[in-house]
Design a protein that fits this description.
With about 425 residues, the chain is α/β, with parallel strands linked by helices. About 30% of the residues lie in helices and about 25% in strands. Helix 2 links the parallel strand 1 and strand 2.
């Protein structure tokens, strides 16, 4: 058996991510597909998978300008939860959470789902009232959550300081069946299943234009040539507005960078996910021992995918107060992703003014946790023209004033 050094493995991984070599060679596009999905991230691949699994639609191409899972799917902090306030939100996120529980078996690919539990800390009286309200709403929605005392928080997270000088812990919203999964495994699991169904996943294929015949889509222009289609799904997160502009309509979105970082590896010290929305910080520990840390979005619109010093200062300062033991840790690496934000902090799964074009966007910083539920709803919407899970998330809600306000449950736009 041939042996590879750690250096050789790292070199090959770098070559793959640079686009020099890929795990499989992208096929040449066919002349026409029933469905084209733009974006080979989690949401795009899940949409393609459920189109095939639930509706038998397999003449599908998933186009990606970079490499598979190289956008936000490979750049997030892997949190999974469904404790949202509004009924429509709780329904689609709980659908996603339940699908995560069986995803490894469904895809025959280990996505390392870890239902370790998640606490959203209440550190002001306003948050206490807000989370108690959410707990009551979740009870009516059939989502298992509970509001717990500061002592229960301390029991679950021994390293936490519940009597901080600025923001003491007054309780928390606890979802025992929330947790994490391995983000790249989710993308590759869906991709392998789509490929097995005969779908084409075409990497290094940037969409440069959307072709219309009157008010109907007929295809796209790409860096690898023109491709025809009957239906087009735009699932490109922070670049949704760019693709919509190519198609001739606008979306009510803003694009911002969201940053995250990990510490050097340490021994196991925290086995749940903790979110502290008042101070804009959240933390969990990976299987490798790194503390995975994230916070709020940048305060200005941008398309950067890198870290910055102000994010380290703001996020780590808050978490050091809440978890004093992490103060001497070194940062291992830092990165950013581009998220698309709506005014009500809820997503858009909708038909568009152009016949045959559908959009899946506006997930903000909560996209990873929604991947299977989002794909399920988007596939149903594209196949049947409507979906109960997507009904409330249409574009028309912004004209009609039917906002799905998740500014409290989403806290850090999460």
């Amino acid at each position: 058996m041939r042996r590879y050094s750690a250096f050789a493995i790292a070199r090959e991984a770098a070559r793959y991510h640079s686009g020099w070599e890929r795990a499989w060679a992208s096929p040449q596009p066919k002349k026409k597909y029933d469905v084209i999905i733009v974006g080979a991230g989690g949401h795009g691949l899940a949409t393609a998978y459920y189109l095939g699994k639930n509706f038998g639609i397999t003449n599908v191409a998933v186009l990606e300008k970079g490499w598979l899972g190289g956008g936000n799917t490979g750049r997030n902090t892997t949190i999974i939860r469904s404790n949202y306030l509004q009924d429509a939100s709780a329904a689609i996120y709980e659908k996603a959470r339940s699908l995560y529980e069986t995803m490894s078996q469904d895809l025959n690919y280990n996505v390392m789902f870890s239902p370790r539990g998640l606490i959203m800390l209440a550190q002001t009286e306003h948050e206490v009232r807000g989370y108690q309200r959410t707990a009551h709403a979740n009870a009516l929605q059939g989502v298992a959550t509970e509001f717990i005392t500061p002592q229960k928080v301390k029991d679950l997270v021994p390293i936490i300081n519940i009597s901080g000088p600025r923001y003491p812990v007054l309780g928390g919203l606890w979802q025992q069946r929330g947790g994490t999964a391995r983000h790249d495994a989710v993308a590759w699991g869906y991709a392998r299943a789509c490929s097995d169904m005969g779908m084409d996943i075409i990497q290094q294929c940037e969409v440069t234009g959307v072709r219309r015949d009157g008010g109907k889509v007929v295809g796209v222009d790409t860096s690898r040539g023109a491709i025809d289609c009957d239906k087009l799904g735009i699932v490109v997160a922070g670049h949704s507005g760019v693709l919509a502009d190519m198609a001739g309509f606008r979306l009510p979105l803003e694009s911002l960078a969201l940053q995250a970082l990990v510490s050097e590896p340490i021994k196991p010290c925290i086995d749940v996910v903790v979110m502290a929305n008042t101070v804009h910080g959240y933390m969990s520990q990976s299987d490798k021992g790194e503390l995975v840390i994230g916070g709020g979005t940048d305060g200005f619109n941008n398309y950067t995918q890198r870290g910055s010093f102000h994010h380290i200062e703001e996020t780590v300062r808050a978490l050091v107060e809440t978890f004093p033991m992490i103060s001497r840790l070194k940062m291992l690496r830092q990165w950013g992703g581009i998220v698309d934000m709506t005014g009500d902090r809820s997503p858009i799964l909708s038909k568009t003014p152009v016949e045959g074009i559908f959009v899946n966007c506006g997930w903000g910083t909560g996209g990873f946790k929604a991947i299977p539920g989002s794909g399920w709803a988007m596939a149903e919407l594209m196949a049947k023209g409507h979906s109960p899970l997507a009904e409330e998330f249409g574009l028309n809600r912004f004209k009609e004033g039917r906002f799905i306000d998740e500014s409290v449950a989403a806290g850090v736009a999460h």
